[in-house]
Design a protein that fits this description.
The chain is α/β, with parallel strands linked by helices. 43% of the residues lie in helices and 20% in strands. It has helices at 3-24, 42-57, 77-89, 103-109, 150-160, 176-189, 204-214, 228-232, 234-243, 253-257, 270-283, 305-310, 317-322; strands at 29-35, 66-72, 94-98, 115-120, 139-143, 166-171, 195-200, 220-224, 248-250, 262-266, 299-304, 325-327.
């Protein structure tokens, strides 16, 4: 992202609500935003832009006014805790929590401020809500990964690289979603003739160590699960896969557009626009406890032919025909 565009987007997060306030004379409503990616990440800004666009559609740029307080945790646990406390101290009317890693520190900081989360796996199992239909507390939102769909990654890996017999699973073992995704993958691996090796990914150094050590054995591949570290360090993971000639399957489109071989998972932008509707309803008086948690509405299959050619792989025509996007 160009510096000028970056500054414009950041400025817009605060500037447009103040303009609305001056024109309309309404009191300011405060919206906290805790992002899981870095401030200079283009994917993060696409998500924030979708959220802001949704707010505008619901009238929070014209007929009403709102200030966005945005914090960028960049996948760092300490930053999540620090920024969660910081946002709650600002006394917001509602907080948008980007990813399951952002929710626990926010719930520790407040049980009264409404929280709308996005891209969270298994919010019931994580204890964020009592049930999907009736969340029951101060949090609700939008899920992303259904653990059962993890088996699809195994299927795609074998379709695009049939000779693979072993796969390193990059996951965040400190998060319940990392454990859940690993469990689903491990249960299905035998039916695809795959031996899975768990690889924990707390930081860049550990990712590089795990991939380098695994790559010393033949017929290997990577399975990258959904987590904050695999999102933050996606360019490193893609580069390691290319360097060690490892076919890899990823959970989101932005992995494939960053150079990854193949991705399958839910749209990462649309939930932010949908979250704006929940924020609007909460600002108008509804409670998170009464707003059901919603599942993804669209899954995307993206194939990067440039990466496939670099690995010497011939992508089956049937797989290409099913793809939502093919990167030449």
């Amino acid at each position: 992202m160009k510096r000028r565009e970056f500054i414009t987007l950041i400025g817009g997060a605060a500037a447009w609500p103040l303009a609305a306030r001056a024109q309309q004379g309404f009191g300011v409503r405060r919206i906290g935003v805790l992002m899981n990616l870095a401030a200079d990440d283009h994917e993060a800004h696409a998500r924030l832009a979708a959220f802001q666009d949704g707010l505008r559609q619901w009238g929070w740029a014209d007929a009403r006014s709102a200030v966005l307080d945005v914090r960028w945790a960049a996948g760092d646990a300490h930053r999540f805790r620090t920024y969660a406390a910081e946002l709650v101290a600002l006394a917001p009317d509602v907080i948008l929590a980007a990813s399951g890693t952002a929710v626990p520190p926010l719930l520790q900081a407040t049980r009264t401020v409404p929280i709308v989360f996005v891209q969270v796996a298994d919010p019931v199992g994580n204890g964020f809500v009592a049930s999907l239909a009736r969340p029951g507390g101060n949090a609700t939102g939008f899920t992303n990964i259904d653990f059962a769909m993890s088996a699809k990654w195994l299927e795609l890996l074998k379709q695009i690289s049939p000779q693979v017999t072993r796969a390193l699973v990059l996951r965040d073992a400190s998060e319940p979603s990392g454990i859940g995704q690993w469990g689903a993958l491990h249960s299905a691996a035998a039916s695809f003739g795959l031996e899975l090796v768990p690889g924990n990914v707390p930081d860049a150094a550990e990712i590089e160590r795990a991939v380098t050590a695994f790559a010393s054995s033949p017929k290997g591949a990577l399975i990258v699960t959904a987590s904050a570290p695999t999102a933050v360090h996606r360019e490193l993971i893609v580069a390691l896969a290319a360097r060690h000639q490892l076919p890899a399957v990823y959970p989101f489109r932005y992995h494939a557009t960053s150079g990854g071989l193949i991705s399958y998972g839910p749209d990462t932008i649309d939930p932010y626009r949908r979250a704006a509707a929940y924020v609007d309803r909460i600002l108008k008086g509804e409670k998170p406890a009464d707003l059901p948690v919603q599942a993804p509405t669209k899954y995307e299959l993206v194939i990067n032919l440039k990466a496939a050619n670099a690995l010497g792989l011939d992508v089956p025509a049937t797989l290409l025909a099913r793809a939502d996007e093919v990167i030449e």
